[in-house]
Amino acid sequence: MTPMTLTRPELETDYTLSRSDIRHFAEHGFVKLKNVLSAETIAEYEPEITGKVIELNTQHLPLEERDTYGKAFLQVSNLWQDSERVLEFVSSPRLARIAAQLLGVQSVRLYHDQALYKESGGGVTPWHADQYYWPFTTDRCVTIWAPLQDTPMEMGPLSFAAGSQTFEFGRDLPISDESERVLQQALAEQNFTEVSEPYELGEVSYHLGWTFHHAPPNTTDIPRRVMTVIYVDAAMEISEPVNANQVADLATWMPGNQPGETISSPLNPVLY
Q1: Annotated domain spans of the chain
Q2: d(CA 227, CA 269)
Q3: Which InterPro entries is this protein grouped with (predicted)?
Q4: 3-253 architecture in CATH?
């Protein structure tokens, strides 16, 4: 029996969310869940994901020559299009069902995946909200942040401003030095609690598109390897883009779709 026959079924089985998990997500805009992935499953898929990041990465400047965004992480998207093994991970009914339950919707689609690898010495990921980049008509979209190793504070785990999903100030800011400075002050003034904790192996988080978050630098000598998948309500309609990033996202991740339509491109299959 190969390892794949042991690990793939885990990605197809249900994960039991508690009422408190669902309540926490609704109230705070994020939730961290333990034991979503076993060590065996992570060990099975991490080498393929990491290999694809190395193969497809287009960032070749030394860290010290990059801007703040470039120092934050290596970002490689839609790995599922280049690897059947990654497709198995990204299309997991287990992970997608959790997203649907947290969002309170019947069905979710894939928006896209992103590997986010914070290199040794990689800098801060500035405060931001993901949905700044996405032309969606509602807030029913969520990102799973799945570390592929234990992630202590020194490695730069994701930190959240609890409850900030309803805070509209700063939603027009892309990831930048400005967003880090302006939002750090604004979120503190509004008394949003910053939840900054390590991640155990197998622990993942889900956060809404409008939940503000950031991450500290990676001061270890090991890359922080994280796989993310973005899910949207399967009935999500596309809004008119309000910035250049949303124009690019519409063309890249929803090819052939137009504002006012329900997402339906071949890149956005229903996963649950």
Answers
A1: 3-253
A2: 19
A3: Phytyl_CoA_dOase-like (IPR008775)
A4: Sandwich (2.60)
